[in-house]
Design goal:
Blueprint: E1 4-10, H1 17-24, E2 30-35, H2 42-46, E3 53-55, H3 62-71, E4 77-80, E5 85-86, H4 89-101, E6 108-117, E7 123-134, E8 141-142, E9 148-149, E10 155-164, H5 173-183, H6 190-202, H7 206-219, H8 224-240, H9 244-253, H10 262-273, H11 278-290, E11 301-302, H12 308-320, H13 324-337
Parallel strand pairs: 1-2, 1-4, 2-3, 6-10
Antiparallel strand pairs: 4-7, 5-10, 6-7, 7-11, 8-9
Helix pairs in contact: 5-6, 6-7, 6-8, 7-8, 8-9, 9-10, 10-11, 10-12, 11-12, 12-13
Length: 339
């Protein structure tokens, strides 16, 4: 049986950290908490679970903090979580099983990450992350914000899911760190460009978002999943500026990177629905319905676009065209996804 070190970085997480640690404390063999400047009871609460609570001076660099936490690990594998993550009961059992049977030759175990939910608790956004890593491989984090691990070796997908219980956001924090990188003259990688553009979009700075999404795409060095997502976000930025011509170009550009995805097809459906061209809207929503949903790809999946959204939009489009029979058919289909 392998042993596991849990490594976490935290700040002002008194409302979340207990829930996270309770969900894994009987599975991991070591809990390492790195605090980056809490002013609440986070450290006190963490101390109820482990005596390995460390202070780390915040330097606007998430990778530095995470690498420090990894440096304190002593077990075979490292599991990393954020304070607002949790393992549900079924996934606790799966992680226990993986711990018992994992082949020690495995370097990385991927786990699904359910990141966002609708008002009824249905998953609307998920993706795979590298969650369990062999300590002897000395994997490390890169980039000050939206940090990542460049992993290699023997990688396996698991059926374990980490559930994100998002409690609070800081809309400017990430953007401030990226802007500081630019001010210091640091050269942005395509990945940096993607996240910088996304942060600009999140605060409605559309010109900056458009500039950096295009820079990222024009670099021709971005990951296919990031390029496709960039096209979706770029179209959103153009729509906010009422630039429909470039909005359409951005969506069509996504086909350079992979076969059509339901998320893109639905955006194209919306494009034509907005101008009451319901026949062309139906073409794209119908295509979204016919695509096979990817279940094991590591990129993000917006689940509603692979069933519910095209169904309800087809219902509306057929209704507008006076085809009540088809409208009822797709209304019933939508109800299968959201009873």
């Amino acid at each position: 049986m392998i042993t596991i070190s849990l490594c976490m970085i935290v700040k002002n997480e008194e409302d979340n950290i207990s829930r996270c640690l309770i969900s894994v404390r009987d599975i991991v063999d070591e809990i390492i908490i790195v605090d980056t400047g809490s002013t609440d009871k986070t450290k006190e609460i963490a101390g109820l679970f482990t005596n390995k609570v460390y202070d780390f001076e915040w330097i606007n660099d998430f990778s530095a903090a995470r690498n420090f936490s990894f440096s304190k690990a002593t077990k075979d594998y490292i599991l990393w979580l954020d304070a607002d993550d949790v393992l549900l009961d079924a996934d606790r059992l799966k992680l226990k099983r993986v711990k018992e049977i994992l082949d020690p030759s495995v370097d990385v175990v991927m786990m699904n990450y359910n990141y966002a939910f609708d008002e009824k608790g249905n998953v609307v956004l998920s993706h795979f992350r590298e969650r369990l890593l062999k300590r002897a491989k000395n994997f490390f984090w890169s980039d000050p914000i939206h940090e990542f691990i460049s992993f290699e070796g023997k990688v396996v997908n698991s059926d374990i899911t980490i559930t994100h219980k998002k409690a609070h956001t800081n809309n400017r924090r990430n953007l401030n760190i990226l802007e500081a990188m630019l001010a210091e003259g640091k050269e942005f990688s395509p990945r940096n460009m993607f996240y910088f553009a996304r942060e600009k979009l999140n605060v409605n700075e559309y010109e900056g978002a458009i500039e950096y999404f295009n820079k990222m795409l024009d670099s021709e060095k971005g990951l296919p999943a990031d390029c496709i997502t960039s096209c979706i976000y770029l179209a959103k930025a153009y729509k906010a500026k009422d630039d429909r011509k470039n909005m359409l170009k951005a969506l069509i550009r996504s086909f350079e990177y992979d076969t059509p995805r339901a998320e893109i097809c639905c955006q194209l459906g919306y494009f034509y629905k907005d101008i009451e061209d319901y026949k062309r809207a139906i073409f794209w929503f119908d295509l979204a319905m016919k695509l096979e949903k990817p279940e094991s790809k590591w990129g993000p999946i917006l689940h509603e676009y692979w069933g519910f959204i095209p169904s309800i939009e087809l219902c509306l489009c057929y209704y507008k065209l006076g085809n009540i029979e088809e409208a009822i058919k797709f209304n019933n289909k939508a109800a299968e996804y959201k009873p």
